[in-house]
Each structure stands twice: as structure tokens, then as C-alpha cells.
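Good morning,

Attaching, inline, the C-alpha cells for the sequence recovery test we're adding to the shared suite. The designed sequence is right after.
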């Protein structure tokens, strides 16, 4: 019996340039994220004094933008160059990283579902830490304001959480004009006002609690998010499935291209 090895194996241009196109989008997105993050840091003077990042007790949203940018830039670059140069090492790095990210996302989703109370406690701690640093970073301040306005909520579990912030604290030691108040994002919007009243939350908590809901949101953001999730479960599931399918598609393209390259190399060495 005779065995034949065909020497006409070749790398599929279809998979090669499809993987390149797939990665160029992520690489360009990574460049945009990095540019936005570095611009935001330059505006805040962080690039000239990097110790400002360590002095912030809360989370600087720009750090998250930069981390996402670095990951997308690195993976996009590895995928693009690996596909064009038919470099197995870069393609394996890209494929392995995508697989790792995929299983991390899956593990986080499962653990968050199984340990909801633990996740809720950690989220409350995270929110309270950032409430304390509300006035320390403009990007963090904008993020909290956006969250409160979008979900019509105030604080982690209620307006009283703003006592954690030195500027809004009701204690006698505070001399801030914002004492016993809340940020303007907690205020119930007045349709008649065309200009945002940033002082609408001043002295609100000096009134009796049964009058708070006339001027501010009294529901906490954690209960608001818990109520939002069941109402939008199909949207969340759809996003998760779409992201997962994109990752699986990228893994498939990378593995197929690696197999083609290995087949060509095996044919050459025969």
C-alpha cells in the first residue's frame, strides 16, 4: 500500500485577510482608547505628576479606559501582524489570550449569579469608597453623576450614604456649603428649567425625610440597578452572546490559520 503526501497545501487568503480585518478594528479601537485616556490624563495634569493616580482613594475611570486600550491594542497588533506575517507565535498568543478572556468572562458571570450577596456587598463597598472621593477626581465625579441621573438614584442605598463624603457630611465639624446636601445628580429634574441647577441638592437633608422625595431621588443605586437588570435581561443576554460569538469567531479564524500554516510547513519539510 502506498501513502502520498500532497505538497500543494497553502494558507487560505480568505482566513488570513478576514482575521486581519477582524483585528484591525480592535487595534484601531485600542488606539482610540489609549489616545482618549492619555488626553484625559494630560488635561488633569497626571502625565506631569503620576503620583496623583496613587493619591486618589477611589477609582479613576481613565485607568479603566487605558487598561482596555492596552489590551485591545496588544491583541489587535498581535492578530494583525500574526495574520499578515503568518507568525504562529503571535497567532497562538492572540488565540490563547482570547480564550483566557472568554473563560474569565464566563467565570465572572457564573460566580456573580451564584454569589449574589457577596457581589452586592463588594459593589456597595466599591460605591462607598468612590463616594468618599467624589470631589477628588472630575472623571469619577462625572461617572457617579451619570450613574445617578440615568438610574434616578442617590447613593449606594440612599441619600444618607453621602454622609461618607467630607463635603456633604452633616456633622458639626463640616463647614462646607454642601453640608447636609447631595450632588445635583440626585435632584428630581424640573422640566421647566432649561439650565441645570447644580445647587439644587444644597441643605436637602436638613429637611424631614418624608419631604426628600419631593426634590431628590431616595432610592439607592444598588437597588435601582437590581431592578434594572430583570427588566433588561434580554438586552444583557444579547450583548453577552454577541461578545461571546465574536470571541469564538476570532478563535476559530486564528486556529484555522495556524492549522494552514502548520500544514504548509509540514509539506515543505517532507
Amino acid at each position: 500500500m502506498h501513502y502520498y503526501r500532497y505538497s500543494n497545501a497553502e494558507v487560505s487568503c480568505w482566513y488570513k485577510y478576514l482575521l486581519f480585518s477582524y483585528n484591525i478594528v480592535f487595534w484601531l479601537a485600542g488606539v482610540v482608547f489609549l489616545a482618549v485616556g492619555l488626553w484625559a490624563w494630560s488635561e488633569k495634569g497626571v502625565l506631569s505628576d503620576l503620583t496623583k493616580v496613587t493619591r486618589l482613594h477611589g477609582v479613576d475611570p481613565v485607568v479603566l479606559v487605558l487598561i482596555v486600550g492596552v489590551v485591545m491594542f496588544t491583541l489587535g497588533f498581535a492578530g494583525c501582524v500574526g495574520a499578515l506575517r503568518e507568525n504562529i507565535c503571535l497567532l497562538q498568543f492572540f488565540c490563547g489570550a482570547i480564550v483566557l478572556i472568554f473563560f474569565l468572562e464566563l467565570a465572572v458571570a457564573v460566580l456573580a449569579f451564584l454569589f449574589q450577596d457577596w457581589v452586592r456587598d463588594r459593589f456597595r463597598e466599591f460605591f462607598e469608597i468612590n463616594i468618599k472621593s467624589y470631589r477628588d477626581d472630575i472623571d469619577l465625579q462625572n461617572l457617579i453623576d451619570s450613574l445617578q441621573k440615568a438610574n434616578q438614584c442617590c447613593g449606594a442605598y440612599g441619600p444618607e450614604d453621602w454622609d461618607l463624603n467630607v463635603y456633604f457630611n452633616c456633622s458639626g465639624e463640616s463647614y462646607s456649603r454642601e453640608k447636609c446636601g447631595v450632588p445635583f445628580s440626585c435632584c428630581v429634574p424640573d422640566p421647566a428649567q432649561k439650565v441645570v441647577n447644580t445647587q439644587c441638592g444644597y441643605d436637602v437633608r436638613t429637611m424631614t425625610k418624608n419631604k426628600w422625595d419631593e426634590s431628590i431621588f431616595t432610592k439607592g443605586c444598588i437597588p435601582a440597578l437590581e431592578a434594572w437588570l430583570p427588566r433588561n435581561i434580554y438586552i444583557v443576554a444579547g450583548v453577552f452572546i454577541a461578545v461571546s460569538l465574536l470571541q469564538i469567531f476570532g478563535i476559530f479564524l486564528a486556529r484555522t490559520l495556524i492549522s494552514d500554516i502548520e500544514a504548509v510547513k509540514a509539506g515543505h519539510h517532507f
